[in-house]
Design goal:
- The protein is of the alpha/beta class and about 475 residues long.
- It contains four helices and 23 strands.
- A hairpin with a 2-residue loop joins strand 8 and strand 9.
- The longest helix has about 35 residues, at about 1-35.
- It starts with a helix and ends in a 17-residue tail after the last helix.
- Residues about 15-35 and about 415-425 have low confidence and may be disordered.
- It holds the Pfam family LRR_8.
């Protein structure tokens, strides 16, 4: 009997343990379900930075902010991210405290934005609307205006606006009416094709712009007045478009523009008109232009402040004029020059003052290791400017193919003695008999040839007078000649 009681007690204990485990598992699953169903979560890196993460939650609407958001300190930097959801309509966002606020709606399905959508967030400084389905008709000034005060709508603090990878053909001319602090505008990867007058007016109205991205917009020209008034513009990207020449309109921002990216355009040549007026440009990138085959004289002359030049990955670029940097050599500013992955085989020794460079890239070309290249690499010190592991190879002649260009020693290259000897005065004693004989023979030959030439000329004159020359016809006045009276 006792044994049976012990067995029953053991079974009861096991049942109790199983019940406790089931309860704990149920509570854990419930907690996990709550976490997964929560639309957003809050994290902080320090007292001044807070992130409200609403990304990858399969959201198709904008949820209310968590209650903890009310505890944000006034000067805190707040990042709100709705990345990779299914939101199609951006409705008006609730008030969000914080000193500087950034919001990302990247990679959603946005096709509509309600007016006053960001009116409650006056301290919004960064807004990412990229990779959506936004058209130009959706973008209106009303979506960026602040609260209505004193019979007018106030501005918001927006500094950066990313509209890349959407379906924008044109911008409303008053789009930036309530964003006077806008300094960075990204319009890349939109089917703009033509910068019409309303789009130009919209861009020109953002007078504090410093960065403008127009890459992959299929534009081929820029109106001459497009950048008029953008006196603070420092960086522009015109890559992956249809330009056959560098737009002349860039000269309007020549006193402020510092960084120009001009990759993958169907240009054929660069010349002395390409960068005219860009006197403040610090860094220039002209790469991946498959049709570019020539850089002509004085191309870079206007770039009086240039420090970094990326002229690389142009697979048909075969020629750079030795005067391409004409006018810059006396006031040389370039520190980094990258000529990698072109179709170059030779460079002129006087192309640039090679010893003044800090970094030089020349890999991926078909270098002919001749006297000029040896002079550039050794005598002028260009070989010391290559980065570690980026030393170019010789492609020709065959006996040097595959050699590092820093290892070449071209034995047939002449070396000239630059020392001078004292000039001696002429003395007759220095003449040798053969010199005198050759001199007499030379003089006699010249005299004989002259005399013979004279006789030939005289004989020709005599023949001309006797047999060839016609006598003139004489006319007689009958009234005055007495023999006919």
């Amino acid at each position: 009997m006792d044994k049976l009681m012990r067995i029953m007690q053991a079974l009861a204990f096991v049942n109790l343990v199983l019940v406790i485990i089931c309860v704990l598992v149920s509570m854990s699953c419930a907690q996990e379900a709550d976490v997964k169903s929560a639309p957003c979560d809050i994290s902080t890196t320090d007292d001044n930075n807070l992130t409200l993460n609403c990304s990858r939650r399969s959201l198709n609407y904008i949820p209310e902010w968590p209650a903890q958001i009310d505890d944000i300190i006034k000067d805190t930097h707040v990042l709100v991210t709705f990345f990779n959801n299914s939101i199609s309509n951006v409705t008006q966002l609730s008030v969000l405290p914080g000193g500087r606020i950034a919001i990302s709606f990247k990679a959603n399905k946005i096709v509509e934005i309600q007016k006053d959508a960001f009116g409650n967030i006056g301290r919004l400084v960064y807004l990412d609307l990229s990779k959506n389905r936004i058209s130009g008709e959706v973008l209106r000034a009303e979506i960026f205006r602040g609260p209505y005060r004193n019979n007018e709508y106030s501005n918001i603090a927006l500094e950066t606006l990313n509209l890349g990878h959407n379906e924008i053909h044109s911008l409303d001319r008053y789009l930036f009416q309530f964003t006077p602090n806008l300094t960075r505008l990204y319009l890349n990867n939109n089917p703009i094709e033509i910068l019409d007058h309303v789009t130009v007016h919209a861009i020109a109205s953002a007078t504090n712009l410093e960065v403008l991205d127009l890459s992959k917009t299929d534009i081929a020209t820029i109106p001459i007045n497009a950048f008029e008034g953008l006196t603070k513009l420092q960086q522009i990207d015109l890559s992956n478009n249809k330009f056959i020449s560098v737009p002349e309109s860039l000269s309007l921002v020549g006193n402020s523009l510092k960084y120009l990216t001009f990759n993958n355009n169907p240009i054929v040549e660069l010349n002395d008109d390409s960068f005219i007026g860009l006197t403040k440009l610090v860094e220039l990138e002209v790469a991946e232009n498959d049709y570019l085959d020539e850089v002509k004289r004085s191309t870079f002359t206007p770039l009086a402040s240039l420090r970094v030049l990326h002229l690389c990955h142009n697979r048909n670029l075969r020629y750079i004029s030795h005067n391409a940097f004409r006018g810059m050599k006396d006031k040389w500013t370039l520190k980094e020059v990258y000529l990698d992955d072109n179709n170059l085989s030779e460079l002129s020794t006087d192309l640039m003052p090679w010893e003044k460079l800090e970094t030089l890239g020349m890999t991926g070309n078909n270098w002919l290791c001749n006297c000029d290249l040896a002079n550039i690499v050794t005598a002028q010190g260009a070989g010391k400017k290559f980065k570690f592991g980026e030393i170019p190879y010789c492609a020709a002649p065959m006996r040097l193919s595959g050699e590092y260009i820093t290892n070449i020693t071209v034995s047939f290259c002449p070396t000239f003695d630059t020392t001078f000897t004292t000039k001696r005065s002429f003395r007759f004693g220095d003449l040798k008999p053969k010199h005198i004989l050759w001199s007499i023979f030379g003089v006699a030959t010249v005299v004989a040839f002259g005399m013979m030439l004279g006789w030939i000329v005289k004989a020709m004159k005599t023949v001309y007078k006797k047999k060839i020359k016609t006598h003139p016809i004489r006319y007689i006045n009958l009234s005055e000649d007495s023999s006919f009276a």
